[in-house]
Structure formats: C-alpha cells, structure tokens
C-alpha cells in the first residue's frame, strides 16, 4: 500500500481545524436570541441596552442585566431583532436619550451562504487531490502507465531505441539462424507467398537452455526484416486483477495486426503456457484464461496477415499440447549450447569493441570454456575487461581471461588460514588427480592444477578437452572415474588416511557410475536395461524424480554394479600413483611452493603422455 505524504496529513488537519472554528463561529451567531421589535424598544427604555449594532434591516443589542447573585455581578447577552419596513424615526432619539452606543454597519452582500460552505468546498477539494495522488502512485507501480496502457501492457511500446540487431550479432547458432532466416522473406515479400496460396507460419517456438540467445535471435529477425517488433514477457500477462491477462493479449494482437508486418515475441512462454487443469481456482484460473486467449488469437489469423508470433522457453516439457500443434506454433527451433567453434565465434562478436592484447588466443579461451552459453561468454569478456581496468592496463590480456574464467567456474579467490599439514594434504590430493589424468590415455588433457581456495573449493585440477564430445565412450568414462577418485587414493598412499576433501569427487563419480549402469547399459551384470531412478531435464541440467519401475532385487543389483565400477576405478588410480610415486612427490613439492602449476611444468615433472599427445 502506498504511503500518503506527511504534508498532506498536515494540510488536512489544518483545514479540519479551520472548519471546526468557522462552524463554531456560525453556531455562536445562530445562537443569538431574536426578540420582537416592541420588546427591543422596551429594553432600551429600561436602560438594559449597552450597545446597538444596526446592520441593514437587523439590529443587534448588547444587554446588561442584573443577575440574581447581586448587583455587582452582571452578565452580558446579545439579542437581535428586525427593524420595521421603512425604518423607525423614534429609534435613534430613544437610543441617544439612554446613552446607548450606536454602531452602524453596511448590509451583507448576500454571499454569507458561500462563506459558510467554504470549509466544505476546501475539504472536498483536498479529498479529491489526495485520491488523485494515490491513484497516480498506484499507476506508478505498473510502470507509470494509465489504465489504458495498463491493460495493454509493455507490449504496446514498439521497440525502436538503440542500434538495430541483425543476424551478424548472432553467432554460434547457425542451424537455428538458418531456420529463422527463412521467415525474413515471408515478412519482406508476403505477396509472393499469397499468390502461391502459402500461409505465413503462425508461430515459431524457440527452445533451449538459458543464455543460448533465444531473445537475441528474435530481435535479429525483426532487425533483418525491418518490421515492427513487440516484446513482452509472459509473466506480464498475469496481474492481480482478473481478466487483465486476456485483455492484454487481445490488445497486443490487435495492435500487431494494425501495424503488420510485425513480430510478437513472448519470452518465458511457460509462465502462462503450462498444461491446463493442473490447479484449482485463484491465479491459476487467470493463467488459463490468458492461455485460452492466446490460443484463440493464434487461431484467428486468416493466414494472409503478416504477423508472426515468436515464443521462447527452456521448459517445453510443461507446455500445453494445444500450443504445440500445427496452426499454433508451427516450427520448433532448438538452440543448443555452443561447441568450441561456436564459442570462438561468440567471443569474436563480444570482443569487437574490446582492446585485446596480442597474447590473447580466442581458440584457447573458447576451448577452456566447455559448457558455457552465449550469455556466459559475454559475461566472461565483460569480467575480463573489468579486471583489466582494475589493473590499470589499456588492453585485456590472456591473464585476465584465465583469471575471470576460474572466477566464473569456481568462484572468487578466498583468503583462508590453512594450516601447514592441511596445505600439504591439499597438494597431495590435487597431485593425485593430476598424475592419473596425465597417464591415462583417454582422459582429457591437463590445463593446470592449483591449491588456491576458490568459492567452495580448496583447489582444483583443470582438464582442457581438445575436441567436442557428442557421445561418451566406455573407455573415456572409466578413465574419468579413475581421475575423480585419484585424489582420495593419493591421500591414502602418501598420508595413510583419507579426508572429507574427497566429498565432491565421490559424489561426481557415483553419479557417473550410476548413469553408466542404469542408463547406458555399461555393466555386464545388469545389461542394456533402463533402471534409472530419475529423468534428466534436457535444458535445465538437473534430474527430475520419477516413480521406480523395477524390483527391489534389481535395485540391489544396480547398487552392486555401481560399487564394482567405483572400486575398479579406484584400483586403476592406485596402480598409477604407486608406479609414479617419485614423480608425484616432486609435483607435490612444486605445488606447495607455487600453489599453481601449468601444463608445461606438469609435463616436465611427470613426463609427457605419448599416447594422449599423439591422439589429441
């Protein structure tokens, strides 16, 4: 609720006090006793009148009468009377005879009634002023729009500000860009398709993980076609007032049809497009009304209106089937996380206006960022530029990219009071990961190893894939398990005990081993059967629990198979560490001294892996 300014309350109290004062005065005036004119003259004759005020046709006399308490105590009273028509020639001599003070005032102008209403007029005026201010504050909560704009929403505002976005600004999504680029010709030359009986696609659904450029692709389509672009988030349809969402949908589509050719872009469609009938009452009914209106409007296209509806979501699994059928969203365009070549192209776009030092290799930067989305890469370039400005340099160097990459992945460097024995254990742990990764032929090549605490991690061994993997071979996965458990093995061999530092390693290895057994059929004991307990979401990168579809006996066998894979991986890592113990000890000493060791130094200490280098 909006707070009324304090000065409004002060003015209101002052006006209220003035009203009470004026009302009291009017009440006092109205309480004066009116007597007959003959009685008035008799009071003058009796000497009871002290003063007389003659005002128009009225006469007011101030009387002084003796009270019952004694002659020394007297009270003053005011009485009034109406003079005879034409006046009384005897009145003035009578007043002079009894030494009465005479006051003669001009007659009232006849507007006393206006004066009596003045307090109420002021009060009503202030009331309406406060109401308008409160209404203005309420509209400010909805973006400073009046009631008409509120029903339309922000989609009414056509996007024109800033430089026009084109397909040149979209990198790393070539296949998606090609599918969307076909719509440009529809928008530029609609008559060509009308003559052939072709209809403009009603809707295009952009699907992909967050940060892959769905909104950017929609803006680029509008920029290439040079048409009106209406951008709104689906959450803006849902407001506290029932029916606003459906009204906004109608007005938005009407406006787009008037300004055709045009594009309507609805971001985060899943906010209103979820499957209907999943809730009871309340805001859910409002959401379903909005969805029904969207479906109705998309059905209302005649086929010759050059209006294309684009929508973006990273949750296509929850959308209502009615949205996905032909005639609504005819095309589904999937945007994937960029591969190495795509990441380099994206970096080139975002570094156009960034002064880069000669030592910066965008190929290396792109290779060191597997799993980064377009938004992540933009953030990396921005953070590197901020770091360069903080260092007072005029160019962004490779050091800034490496530092900000580590910050994004693992967090900011922490200052911790680490005891010498704990510092040594960290070096042993990370040296174990590094050695096993170096000597296993199918593990990813090493990039660097560090024992500098970052974020929630006390250290890390960074592996740098030399190529993108679309499928994971069984040999590669077995080597990944061995690398994950190698830190724990090194602690046990060199220190005789293990620590809680292997918590995340064991968690990661267990998840990978369970996927190998329950999803990918990589266990001889279980075979090719799907016995997973959860379903991984394709875009959110997390698992969604699902009912178990197998017996308790099968569940026990899965657990045994997972345990077997983990123990085999641990044994492989232990063999490598024991075999190369002397070299690992040298790496531990170097890690404790420098805290960060790069690939060249690692290979100089441990020896270069000939098999891996030859296949990289």
Secondary-structure blueprint:
Blueprint: H1 6-30, E1 33-34, H2 37-45, E2 49-55, E3 58-67, E4 70-82, H3 91-97, E5 101-105, H4 112-140, H5 147-152, H6 174-188, H7 190-195, E6 203-207, H8 214-225, E7 228-233, H9 244-258, E8 262-267, H10 283-299, E9 307-313, H11 321-324, E10 331-334, H12 340-350, H13 362-367, H14 374-391, H15 398-410, H16 420-439, E11 446-450, E12 460-463, H17 474-495, H18 503-518, E13 534-536, E14 543-545, H19 552-579, H20 581-594, E15 596-598, H21 599-606, H22 610-615
Parallel strand pairs: 1-4, 2-5, 6-9, 6-10, 7-8, 8-9
Antiparallel strand pairs: 2-3, 3-4, 11-12, 11-15, 13-14
Helix pairs in contact: 1-4, 6-8, 9-10, 12-14, 14-15, 16-17, 16-20, 17-18, 17-19, 18-19
């Amino acid at each position: 609720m909006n707070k009324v300014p304090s000065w409004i309350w002060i003015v209101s109290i002052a006006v209220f006090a003035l009203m009470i004062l004026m009302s009291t005065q009017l009440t006092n005036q109205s309480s004066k006793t009116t007597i007959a004119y003959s009685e008035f003259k008799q009071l003058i004759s009796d000497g009871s009148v002290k003063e007389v005020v003659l005002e128009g046709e009225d006469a007011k006399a101030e009387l002084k009468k003796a009270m019952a308490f004694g002659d020394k105590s007297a009270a003053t009273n005011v009485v009034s009377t109406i003079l005879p028509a034409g006046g009384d020639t005897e009145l003035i001599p009578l007043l002079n005879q009894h030494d009465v003070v005479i006051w003669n005032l001009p007659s009232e102008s006849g507007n006393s009634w206006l004066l009596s209403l003045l307090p109420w007029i002021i009060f009503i005026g202030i009331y309406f002023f406060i109401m308008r201010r409160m209404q203005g504050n309420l509209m400010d909560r909805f973006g400073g729009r009046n009631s008409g704009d509120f029903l339309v929403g922000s989609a009414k505002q056509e996007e024109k500000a800033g430089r026009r976005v084109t397909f040149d600004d979209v990198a790393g999504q070539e296949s998606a860009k090609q599918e969307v680029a076909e719509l440009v010709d529809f928008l530029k030359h609609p008559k060509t398709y009308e003559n052939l009986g072709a209809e403009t696609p009603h809707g295009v659904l952009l699907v992909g993980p967050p940060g892959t450029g769905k909104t950017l692709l929609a803006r680029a389509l509008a920029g290439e076609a040079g048409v009106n672009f209406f951008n709104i988030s689906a959450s803006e349809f849902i407001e506290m007032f029932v029916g606003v969402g459906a009204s906004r949908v109608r007005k938005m589509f009407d406006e787009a049809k008037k300004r055709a050719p045009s594009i309507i872009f609805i971001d985060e469609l899943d906010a209103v497009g979820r499957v209907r009938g999943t809730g009871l009452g309340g805001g859910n009914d409002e959401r379903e009304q909005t969805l029904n209106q969207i479906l109705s409007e998309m059905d209302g296209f005649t086929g010759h209106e050059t209006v294309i509806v684009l929508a973006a979501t990273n949750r296509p699994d929850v959308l209502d089937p009615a949205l996905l059928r032909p005639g609504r969203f005819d095309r589904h365009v999937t945007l994937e996380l960029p591969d190495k070549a795509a990441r380099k192209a994206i970096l080139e776009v975002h570094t156009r206006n960034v002064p880069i030092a000669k030592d910066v290799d965008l190929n290396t930067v792109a290779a060191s960022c597997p799993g980064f989305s377009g938004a992540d890469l933009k953030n990396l370039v921005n953070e590197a530029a901020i770091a360069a400005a903080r260092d007072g340099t005029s160019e962004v160097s490779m050091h800034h990219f490496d530092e900000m990459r580590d910050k994004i992945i693992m967090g900011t460097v922490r200052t911790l009071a680490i005891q010498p024995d704990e510092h040594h254990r960290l070096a042993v742990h990370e040296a174990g990961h590094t050695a096993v990764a170096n000597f296993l032929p199918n593990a990813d090549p090493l990039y660097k190893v560090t024992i500098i605490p970052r974020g929630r991690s006390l250290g890390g061994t960074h592996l740098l894939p030399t190529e993108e993997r679309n499928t994971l071979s069984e040999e590669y996965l077995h080597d990944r398990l061995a690398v994950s458990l190698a830190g724990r093995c090194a602690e046990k061999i060199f220190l005789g005990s293990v620590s809680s530092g292997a918590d995340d390693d064991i968690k990661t290895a267990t998840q990978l081993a369970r996927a190998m057994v329950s999803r990918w059929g990589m266990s001889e004991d279980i075979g090719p059967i799907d016995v997973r307990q959860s379903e991984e979401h394709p875009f959110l990168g997390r698992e969604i629990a699902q009912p178990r579809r197998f017996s308790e006996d099968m569940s026990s066998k899965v657990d045994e198979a997972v345990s077997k894979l983990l123990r085999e991986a641990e044994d492989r890592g232990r063999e490598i560490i024991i075999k190369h113990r002397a070299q690992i000890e040298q790496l531990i000493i170097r890690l404790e001294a420098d805290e960060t060791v790069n690939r060249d130094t690692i290979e100089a200490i441990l020896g270069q892996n000939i098999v891996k280098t030859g296949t990289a």
